[in-house]
Design a protein that fits this description.
The protein is an all-alpha fold and 536 residues long. Helices cover 76% and strands 0% of the residues. Helix 1 runs parallel beside helix 4.
Length: 536
């Protein structure tokens, strides 16, 4: 583009040209961010038994803490932050979010009770909600369509590297700290608290590196350059008001009596569901509202907020609604992958506590034989899955969906083996295979969802994609495993096996996606125009 300065050159390369070196450099920085993202998130796994002993909580609370307390706010704030990623400087947004979640991770180290720890994890969720909408959108502007599944897979490898490293770091810090300070160290901190500080503080330094990255021209690499939004925060605040209760009610009232009645009906429906589920799972987690457990209160608020936001989006930006919530192809992809995440998040979180309790593994051993191999397995799975997805796409229009299906089906046998064995070595091997196979689906699912929307909608599409992985996968999976563990004699073995009930649903959704995605992917511009989008 005339007058474009040099900092934007990565985004202007024709789609069939060689990818600039800067794009690969920037991607490597994003991978480091995602590594830290999942270290901060996943370190709860190796610390779970220590937190349980020190704070006197049960497995259902631990599942709630790792899953729902984080997932709801991660998902909800991902919506307005996804909008902000579509209109503001994505590099700045990512650096601010990294600073926030690193600060809240460090503050988790000063928690003295379950309530304080829950609040800190909520803050981590809000901060981390900036990461993937910004990163996915940046990657789509740094890499041509032919390499996006690969680039997204490389970025996503940070998930598995960070998750694996977290077990190693957490185990080493806890055991060495407790050995050095058996009665509590400086400030009375226990080993698990020191572990939070050790992984939170480095993120503050990484945030300074991230802010130095150059912002690419949005959509230029696809021949659809999009000018900067002169009022980038206007849409953010609109989405914030549309998704945060009780402002959602006022937002609905502005749309008319019909929209208000629909919103109130949704509020009543999710409130009733939260009460019913609380009664069915009596005693699950704590209860800040009498009669409703925190698990179902948080999740009910989350689902109601998403319902409110989706109906508001339909009124304000129908083209985006039409290509996401209104697209069966898009929904079958994201919900189908959500079932993979349901099982994968559960296995990832409960693996270390299971091996420590049931198989007698030491924390440092878990770091080396579960955490490190898990990082390798996830890295191999997501990279090979991404390459397989791009390769199959050249021969089959639904090639990427095939890879998601592969990740779902092939992860089932190793999960069953891992959580029924009494041999520690068998557990490690089966966990490695389960991690690798489930990881293979991520790059394909992410690229598939991005291919079904316009460039200006990518941040929002990413936010909706992560609604499925968080409110379905992360928000329910780990809690379900913990709850079943707490109320059945089978413990974590039965709890983990209970999460496999979602596999048939995921299989049906992905079968539908195999048929729906090719036609939807080939008609993005036509469908957008039909929904009212103005495209030159």
């Amino acid at each position: 583009m005339p007058g474009q300065d040099s900092e934007h050159t990565p985004a202007t390369s024709p789609a069939n040209n060689k990818v600039p070196t800067y794009s690969w450099y920037a991607l490597s920085v994003l991978v480091l961010v995602y590594v830290l993202n999942f270290i901060d998130r996943q370190i709860l796994s190796i610390l779970a038994n220590d937190i349980k002993a020190d704070l006197g909580v049960a497995d259902d609370y631990l599942g709630f803490l790792y899953g729902t307390a984080f997932a709801v706010f991660y998902a909800l704030f991902g919506i307005p932050l996804g909008k902000l990623a579509d209109s503001w400087k994505r590099v700045r947004l990512l650096s601010v979010g990294l600073f926030l979640w690193s600060t809240m991770t460090a503050l988790s180290g000063f928690a003295k009770n379950a309530t304080t720890l829950t609040i800190a994890r909520v803050g981590v969720g809000v901060g981390e909600a900036t990461a993937s909408p910004s990163a996915y959108s940046l990657i789509a502007d740094w890499f041509p369509a032919r390499l996006r599944a690969t680039a997204l897979a490389i970025y996503s490898s940070g998930l598995y590297i960070g998750g694996g490293i977290s077990l190693l770091i957490g185990g080493l810090v806890v055991e060495n700290w407790n050995e050095a300070y058996p009665g509590g160290g400086p400030l009375g901190l226990a080993g698990w608290q020191a572990a939070f500080l050790s992984v939170g503080i480095p993120g503050l330094l990484l945030a300074l590196w991230v802010v130095s990255l150059k912002e690419p021209v949005r959509g230029a690499i696809d021949g659809l350059p999009t000018p900067e939004n002169p009022k980038p925060f206007k849409g953010f605040f609109e989405e914030l008001l549309a998704v945060i209760p009780p402002f959602t009610i006022f937002g609905a009232a502005r749309q008319g009596a019909g929209a208000l009645l629909l919103n109130l009906a949704g509020l009543a429906g999710f409130a009733i569901l939260a009460v019913v589920l609380s009664k069915l799972t009596a005693g699950a987690t704590s209860s800040i509202v009498p009669g409703i457990s925190d698990q179902w209160l948080f999740l009910g608020v989350g689902y109601y907020a998403v319902f409110s936001w989706a109906t508001a989006l339909r009124a304000r930006d129908y083209p985006t609604f039409s290509l996401t919530w209104g697209s069966p192809a898009f929904l079958t992809v994201v919900l189908g992958y959500g079932t993979v995440a349901f099982m994968a998040y559960s296995a990832s979180y409960w693996g270390a506590p299971f091996a420590e309790r049931n198989l007698g593994a030491a924390k440092t051993e878990l770091g080396w034989f579960l955490g490190a191999p898990s990082a390798v397995a996830g890295f191999l799975g997501v990279i090979l899955g991404g390459r397989m997805a791009d390769s199959l796409l050249e021969r089959f229009a639904n090639g990427r969906v095939m890879v998601i299906m592969f990740g779902l089906v092939t992860s089932l046998p190793p999960i069953v083996i891992a959580y029924t064995t009494t041999d520690l070595t068998t557990f490690y091997i089966a966990s490695f295979v389960a991690q690798m196979t489930s990881a293979s689906a991520l790059g394909a699912a992410a690229a598939s969802s991005q291919a079904l929307v316009l460039p200006r909608m990518r941040g929002m599409a990413t936010a909706i994609f992560f609604l499925s992985t968080t409110l379905v996968g992360l928000g329910i999976g780990p809690f379900m495993a913990g709850y079943v563990s707490a109320v059945t004699p089978g413990g974590l073995s039965t709890g983990m096996l209970s999460t496999l009930v979602v596999a048939p649903l995921g299989f049906v959704l992905l079968l539908a996606a195999l048929k729906l995605v090719p036609a939807a992917g080939n008609s993005v511009i036509e469908r957008a125009r039909a929904a009212g989008e103005e495209i030159d």
